[in-house]
Each structure stands twice: as structure tokens, then as C-alpha cells.
Amino acid sequence: MNPDEFINWLYIVERLLEFKKVPADRVVKYMAIKLKRNDFLWWENLKRNRNREGRSKITTWDKMKKFLQRKHIPDQYQQDLFLQFTQLQQQLLVEEYVAAFEQYSLKCGLIEPEENTSARFLGGLQPAISNVVQLQLYWTFQDEVILALKVEKQQHRFKKSVEKSSMQDSVTKKLTLCPSKPPSLNSRTQEDSIPRRGMQNGPSQLIFPARKCFKCQGYEHIAVHCLNHRTV
């Protein structure tokens, strides 16, 4: 097992000890059964070597756990883990930050006053959330977590309403800046070019009757200029 897997395994088996209420004189044997194959072989070899060297038997869970931790957790691991814990910052959702915070707290085996845990948690929250949480009243670390989740939900609802309002304003501005277009000049020119029934294309002309002489009843001249001197 790698260090992370071992710490998770250790947490689970210790919860089992509490649940089953295993007697203290049987805890070591019970935990030996819970070891995985490679760890079980290592444990049997450790007991054999200690017996050959004349050392005392391991009869308590605390002592057995120290040997297991020495095997699976490097010396530098705990220091690096605690450094990562102190630098933990919320990147996405509060729920994901809470899960990471509790996991680091478990792996580091950190035992501190609840006020310190609350301050550490608050320092890793996003400023937009932590600034609101600080103004509220809470008594425990769990109260602080619930409050941070509520603040995040309220901010998400407010953000959605603002986005919806800005979208509606944008549509309204577009409709205001683009009024309906008047009829184009080309359409009116085309309409005027359609000939009306009963009208000529060109200008109307006045037609006068031909000149007629009343003496000879001829055309193209009048009586004054008539060459026919007949009497009527």
C-alpha cells in the first residue's frame, strides 16, 4: 500500500475496533487478520525476528500501529502532507473543498482546538464566501461548513438572475437600435414606372382640325386666300 491507501485503511480498521468493541488483549491478533497479504507476511517475519532476538512480544495496538506506520509512511511524507494542508485553497465548489480539508485533517492526524480548525478552514475559502461567513454567527466547525454552503448557493442564484437580466437588456437594446425600415427609393421608383391603364407614356398632345375654306369648301386654306372665285 502507498501512504494514502495505508492511512485510509488505518482509519477504517480503527472504526471497526470501536464498533465491534474488541477486547484489548485480542486487538493485535484481530488486526493481524485484517492485514493484506504482503503486510501479513511482513508482520509474521517481524514477530519471528523479535522472538529470535529475545525481544518482548508486541501485545498492544498502539505499538503495532507504530511499526505499521514506520513501514508504510516515509519520514518526509508527514511533513509534506502538513505543508499541503496549510496551503489548501478552495478552487471549485465548497463541497469539494470541505472533502479535501477533512481528508488532509485525517491524514495528518491533526488534533487541535476547534477554533483553530475553523480559522484554518475559513482561510482557505474563496474571499467572496469567507467575507460573508465571517459576518455571521456560528458556534462549531460544522456550523461554519453549513454556512459556507448556504452562502455559495445564494451567490449562484444571484449570479444567474444577473445574467438573465443582462441578456434581456441586450435584446431590448438591439430592438431599439434597429427600427423597421421605410420603403426604399428603388421600390417607389419601380412602382412609379408601372404604366397606368388609359395613360400614354409620353406627354398628351392637342389635335386641332384641318383648316377649311367656307367659300369652296376646300381644305388647307381659308376664304381670304381662296383662289376659286365662285359665288355662293
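Above is the first protein from milestone M3; the second protein from the same milestone is given next.
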Amino acid sequence: MCLISHYISAQLLPPSISSVDAQLPHPSVFCAKTTSILVTMRSNSFIAAAAVVAQGVAGLGINCHGDVLCGIAYISGGRLSHLQDVFNKLDDNRKYDNGDDVACIELDSLNYNGKFTSTLCAYIQNSEGDVTGATLKSVFKELQTFGCAICGSVPLHYAKGDDDVNHGELTINLVEELPENCKVNEPCSA
């Protein structure tokens, strides 16, 4: 069974990599058999695909992934920068552990059902140790500099050259409801 594709799906590749494949003059051909897969593509496409596989093995690294509703919140005016005021209020010396909520804001959003409120929160994941408020402020700025519009994750040790979210990450994402230990527009309590 063969599948002919003009380029690898943009959903599988980051924009910087998928744009390379979009420039291919001829389709790439993928033929799968029961025991082997034949892949024919230009060398730059192979390198791009290998980079994606390597990134998946090593962890996503800094990224702008999030809930599918992040796009709706963005179109409705929500921005990552709206969390900046709350991050400015973080105590530099406070220690945060894995699973801790850091900060939350509420965003007014709009979809086909009408107006609704989204809750955008920052929280710690995959961390084996604690992290200070000062470090969280720093990695939040890295996420902004990276260019994330509203949702994303950044490794806690990004400034030290460790781009693996599996070693701890600050995640900004929409959540179903405001966590009990959080107040809107204020740092979350311990």
C-alpha cells in the first residue's frame, strides 16, 4: 500500500521544519509492506524527519504546545504576556515542587456557543527537585522570547542548556477550573 504526500504533515513538524518539506518540488513516496518501509525523500526532508524523531526521544524541549482551546483563547485576545504581572509578584526565594500551581489568570473567550471564561495557569511538571520563584521568572521570559502566543512549556534548566522537559518544566496551559490554592491574578499559595 503506497501513500503519496507532497510533504510531511505540518501537524507532525514544527513550522521551522515543515516549511523545508513544503518546498519539495516532487512528492515524497511512502510505501509500507508488512515487514519493511521504503521511504524516498530528499536529504533535507530526511534530516528534518530525523530531527523530529530525535526531539521526541529527548523530550519536546521548549515548545508552544497546549490544549486545543489555546487557539480559541488566543483569537479571543488571550496572550501569554497577560501572565507577566502575576509572575512579577512571585517571591524570588519561594520554592516550588513538582505539581505545584504557580499562577492563574482568567480570559474571556468566544466560540460558536457564545462567551465563556477560560482559565490559563502556570504549573510545574516532571521536576525531581524544587525550583525558586526567581528561576520561574527567568524561564517564563524564555518562553516569551521563544515566541509562544499563549500556551507552552519550557524546561526548568533551559538557561543551563538543558532543553529536555523531562527534567522538569514550567507549563502554561488552559485548565478546566481555577485550582483551589490559586486566586486569579495572584501567585498561587503553597
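Note on the second protein: Residues 1-58 have pLDDT under 50 and may be disordered.
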